Amino acid sequence: MLSELRHKIRGRRSVRARIALACAGLFLVTGGAFVAATYTLVDHSLPATAVVNPASINKHFLQACYSGEQNGTLPGGQVPKCKQAFAIAAEFGAAMQRLDDLHQLLLWSLGGLAVATIVAGLLGWAIGRRILVPLHKVTGTARRASQEHLHERISLDGPNDELKELADTFDDMLDRLDLAFASQRRFVANASHELRTPITSMRTLIDVAMAKPARTTEGLETVVGRVREALGQSEAIIDGLLTLARSDRGLTTRELVDLEAAAQDGIDQTGTSARASNVAIEADLSAAPTLGDRVLVERLVANLVDNAVRYNVTGGSVQVETGTDRGQSYLSVTNTGPLVPEPKLASLFEPFTRLDQRVANSQGVGLGLSIVASVVAAHNGQLQADALPKGGLKITVWFTTTAPWPIPNPARAPDQVHQNMR
Amino acid sequence: MTRGDLVVDRARRAVTRAGRPVHLARKELGVLEVLVSADGAVVSAEQLLEQVWDEHADPFTKTVPVTVGRLRRKLGDPPLVETVIGGGYRIP
């Protein structure tokens, strides 16, 4: 833990130091180039001087010439010699002056460069801090974010740069995690509530029946019937939860499934209850083959058809359609029914949610559409739900279609066909 | 159960014809099973209705011929299920 922290600190410092070093280094390189250029330029622009051999200057002779000229004691024969010596000395002085000038220039330039490089490094150090502040914020939030503190956000303000993008992306991720955890908590809370309710009512029914002083057979039979109903409800919930868990796990088998056959089954199964509630089922089915888990797909279709009949109006209708379109097999179920407000549409696919609040009414257990969503997700399919303006829903599921409907070819022997399929 | 190139696996509810899988709805599978078990004998629409459909089925609907039609289409060529006029259906 401590070494981890130390490592983090060192890592953080090294990024900051790298920024400072980069600043100083860049300044040194460009500044050095600039100094070199200036030096060369000045060197070229100063007038060139003759090369003088210092050995050729006789200091005593010069001194004698000088004092002789001042006192007027210079012998006439020495005058041209002295003039030549003076000229050489003057040229030597100019060359010395030029060298000295260049030397001074170089000294000041290099000194300035050194100071400026240090300043650049210090500025880089300071800028590094500024750059890293948002990163520290992201790190801090990430470290604090746990299942309980997912509501915290970085909400970085400042220019719309890469760091802001990072912070915003991180915030978005936290949003999604928060939602996922919240929905999971809701699911667990609802599941336990829904599982407990029928059990509680069974216990109450039995307790009340047993507390009666005079128990009649008819009375007990009524109680048994109601307990059986509650048991059916429990069974439906457990069954639904197991299906949900199975499809959430993903697919283990893939076999040929025809949405048409599944829809036919769904319609056959709901036929009785549809007739009882006077709902007409219209079917327009054609082959819609796909690969998937047959049990799950049949459950999905049955749920959609069952829901469409269950949440309908008396004298309403349900339309079931299957087929293929642009390489996709689809099934769509449209029903008449109560008006669904657009914002509530998505929540219908959450476990234990019904349009008429989360009440344990006798109709359904509230898992149907969440199973649909989960099965579609397990098959990498698409799900589309549209609230119809006159009330009711149109739900369409799309799956990848498999090879065209296999029409047996009698010319082929069965074993050859097997090989071809592999 | 097999009949020609048709294989019906009752336990897995899997049907293949000439090695190719066919996905049938329950009622279609039920009709097919009855016809295959009849071993070439003629099965009447009333018998099918009684054996495959439950007690809620309406005997006056066209549900049996419709289901047999779908079954024929899914099983493909060459035609397997024959219609015996005035009698019912059979798989010879």
Mean pLDDT of chain B: 83
Question: Largest sheet of chain A, order of strands side by side?
Answer: 2-4-5-7-6
C-alpha-based Rg of chain B, rounded: 12 Å
Summing up helix and strand content along with how strands pair, one would put the structural category of chain A as: alpha+beta
Order of helices and strands of chain A: HHHHHEHEEHEEHEEH
Query: What proportion of the residues of chain A is helical, as a percent range?
Result: 55-70%
What's the gist of this structure?
Chain A is an alpha+beta fold and 422 residues long. Chain A contains nine helices and seven strands, in the order H-H-H-H-H-E-H-E-E-H-E-E-H-E-E-H. Helix content of chain A is 61%, strand content 11%.
Q: How would you describe what is shown here?
A:
The complex is a heterodimer of chains A (422) and B (92). By secondary structure, chain A is α+β, with helices and mostly antiparallel strands. Helices cover 61% and strands 11% of the residues of chain A. In chain A, strands 2-4-5-7-6 form a five-stranded mixed sheet, with helices on one face. A two-stranded antiparallel sheet of chain A has the order 1-3. In chain A, a hairpin with a 5-residue loop joins strand 6 and strand 7. Chain A is rod-shaped. The two termini of chain A are 54 Å apart. Chain B is an alpha+beta fold and 92 residues long. Helices cover 36% and strands 21% of the residues of chain B. Chain B has three helices and six strands. In chain B, the strands form two sheets. Chain B has a four-stranded antiparallel sheet, with helices on one face. A two-stranded antiparallel ribbon of chain B has the order 5-6. In chain B, strand 5 and strand 6 form a beta hairpin. In chain B, helix 1 crosses helix 3. The longest helix of chain B is centred in the last third of the chain and has 13 residues. Chain B is globular. The relative contact order of chain B is 0.20. The mean pLDDT of chain B is 83. Classes of the chains: A alpha+beta (422), B alpha+beta (92). Chains A and B meet through strand 1, helix 6 and helix 9 of A and strand 4, helix 1 and helix 3 of B.
